[in-house]
Design goal:
This protein has 417 residues and is of the alpha+beta class. Among the domains are: 110-200, Tetratricopeptide repeat domain (Serine Threonine Protein Phosphatase 5, Tetratricopeptide repeat), CATH 1.25.40; 205-269, Carboxypeptidase-like, regulatory domain (Immunoglobulin-like); 312-416. It has helices at residues 2-24, 28-31, 57-63, 110-129, 133-146, 150-162, 166-178, 187-200, 312-344, 348-380, 383-392, and strands at residues 205-212, 220-223, 226-228, 232-235, 238-245, 252-258, 263-269, 397-405, 408-416. The strands form three sheets. The chain has a four-stranded antiparallel β-sheet with strand order 3-2-5-6, with no helix packed on it. The protein has a three-stranded mixed β-sheet with strand order 4-1-7, with no helix packed on it. Residues 107-116 have a biased composition (Basic and acidic residues).
Length: 417
C-alpha cells in the first residue's frame, strides 16, 4: 500500500514540474498570435490536429528525462490524470512563429475605382466648402490615387494653399501643372496655378539667429547691410550676408543662402575684442636755445645811374620815314603820268610801267609810315620807362629795316631776347 502511494506521489510531482516548466517557457510572442488556430471539426478525432503540435516533440523528449524530487502537491489539489503528456517548453533561442491570417484586399475594378473616387471627391467638396481644408485635402488625395486627374490635383493644391502650407502647396500646384490639363477647360486654373507658384516661391524664409553668448550688450543684426529688429528675421530667398555685432565683440559675418518658406536657425559665435593699446604720452621736445644776436641786414647797394638816352636814333628813324615819303611821292607822280599815257595809248609796256611805279610808291609810303611811328616812339618815350625796361630785361634788342626789290618791298624786323 505504501509502495503504491509513493509511486502515485512521484507521478503527480513529475507532472506538476513538467507543467510548471511548460508555463515558464511559453514565449510572449507566441501568446500574442493574431489569430487562434481553428478547432478540429466535430466528429473528427483529435489526432487530426497533431501536426500543429509537432514542434513540441523535442520538449517531450526532455520531459522523459529523470527529474529531481519535487515537493508533494498541496492538500486538496487534484492531481492530473495519469498518462496525460505535458506540453514541452521551446528551446532557448529558438525563434517563435507568428501565425497571421490577414487576407489581401481584393483589387478594385475600374468601375469600382471610379465610383470610389467620385464618392471621395464629393465628400471632399463638402468639407472644403465648410472650411475643413485639412480633411478635404486628404480626401482629394485619395480620390486622385483611385483615378488620377487634373481636377483633384487642382483642388488638393488649393486646399493646401488655404492652410498656408507653402512648400506642400508649391509641390501640389507643380504636380497639377505637370499633369498637362486641358488648355481650354482649365485655362483659368492653369494661369492661377502658375501665378501661385511664382508668388509662393517668393515667400520669405524664417531665420532665427542664436548667438554665443546668448544676450551680449548692444546686439545688432544686419542682412546685406540693412539693420534688422530682433533675432527672428524674415529673409527673402537667395544668397545674403548676415552680420552680427555687439559691444565689446568683433563683428561676425557669414554667407547665408535660404529657400522660400524655409525655417532655419543660424548659430553665430562672437569673439571678444582685444583691449585697445594705451597711447604713450609723447615726450616733450627740448627747449630751443635763445637765438643768437643777428646783425641787421645791409641795405642793397644803390642802382647805377642811368645815362640819358640819345635822341639820334629817333632822328635817324624819322629821317628815313621822310625819305620814304619823298620816294613814295615821286613814284606816285610817275605812276599817275604813266597811267595817263596808258589811257592815251594803251600798250603792255605802259601797263607794266604803271604797275611798277604804283607798287614802289605804295611800299615807300608803308616804309615811311613804319619808320615814322618808330621814330615818334623813340622820341616821345620817357626815360624812366626805358630804365624799367632795361632793368627787367637788359638783353632785349630790336632792329627794323625796310627793303625794296623790283617785284615788291617791305620792312624786316629782328628782336633779340
Amino acid at each position: 500500500m505504501r509502495s503504491r502511494s509513493g509511486r502515485l506521489t512521484m507521478l503527480t510531482s513529475a507532472a506538476m514540474v513538467s507543467g510548471l516548466l511548460t508555463m515558464t517557457s511559453v514565449s510572449p510572442a507566441s501568446a500574442q498570435t493574431d489569430a487562434k488556430p481553428a478547432a478540429p471539426p466535430a466528429g473528427k478525432p483529435a489526432a487530426a490536429a497533431a501536426p500543429a503540435a509537432a514542434p513540441a516533440k523535442p520538449a517531450a523528449l526532455a520531459a522523459q528525462a529523470p527529474t529531481p524530487a519535487a515537493t508533494p502537491p498541496a492538500a486538496g489539489a487534484t492531481p492530473p490524470a495519469t498518462g496525460t503528456p505535458a506540453a514541452a517548453p521551446a528551446k532557448a533561442g529558438e525563434p517563435t512563429t507568428k501565425v497571421t491570417t490577414t487576407k489581401p484586399k481584393k483589387a478594385l475594378t475600374e468601375k469600382q475605382k471610379k465610383d470610389e473616387a467620385k464618392k471621395l471627391y464629393k465628400e471632399a467638396e463638402a468639407r472644403f466648402d465648410k472650411g475643413e481644408y485639412a480633411v478635404a485635402a486628404d480626401l482629394y488625395r485619395q480620390a486622385d490615387e483611385h483615378v488620377p486627374g487634373a481636377a483633384p490635383k487642382y483642388k488638393l493644391a488649393l486646399a493646401l494653399d488655404k492652410q498656408g502650407l507653402v512648400t506642400e502647396a508649391v509641390a501640389a500646384w507643380q504636380a497639377f501643372l505637370d499633369s498637362k490639363p486641358d488648355a481650354e477647360k482649365f485655362k483659368e486654373k492653369i494661369a492661377e496655378g502658375q501665378a501661385r507658384v511664382e508668388a509662393l516661391k517668393k515667400t520669405p524664409a524664417k531665420v532665427k539667429v542664436a548667438t554665443v553668448p546668448e544676450a551680449p550688450p548692444g546686439l545688432k543684426v544686419a542682412v546685406d547691410g540693412v539693420a534688422q529688429t530682433g533675432k527672428e528675421l524674415s529673409v527673402p530667398p537667395g544668397k545674403h550676408t548676415l552680420t552680427v555685432s555687439a559691444e565689446g565683440f568683433a563683428d561676425a559675418s557669414q554667407e547665408l543662402e535660404v529657400t522660400f518658406a524655409e525655417a532655419r536657425e543660424v548659430n553665430v559665435t562672437l569673439t571678444p575684442q582685444a583691449p585697445a593699446p594705451v597711447a604713450a604720452t609723447p615726450a616733450q621736445p627740448p627747449t630751443p636755445p635763445p637765438p643768437a644776436d643777428v646783425p641787421p641786414a645791409q641795405p642793397p647797394p644803390p642802382a647805377a645811374p642811368i645815362e640819358p638816352r640819345s635822341p639820334v636814333p629817333a632822328y635817324v628813324t624819322l629821317g628815313l620815314a621822310g625819305a620814304g615819303v619823298v620816294v613814295g611821292t615821286i613814284f606816285g607822280i610817275q605812276a599817275l603820268g604813266a597811267k595817263s599815257d596808258f589811257d592815251d595809248a594803251p600798250t603792255t609796256k605802259t601797263a607794266d610801267k604803271v604797275d611798277r611805279f604804283a607798287l614802289i610808291a605804295d611800299m615807300s609810303f608803308a616804309v615811311a609810315l613804319t619808320f615814322g611811328v618808330t621814330g615818334a616812339v623813340l622820341l616821345l618815350s620817357d626815360d624812366s620807362a626805358q630804365a624799367k625796361a632795361a632793368a627787367s630785361n637788359a638783353t632785349k634788342k630790336a632792329f627794323v629795316t625796310p627793303f625794296v626789290s623790283p617785284t615788291g618791298g617791305g620792312a624786316a624786323a629782328r628782336f633779340t631776347f
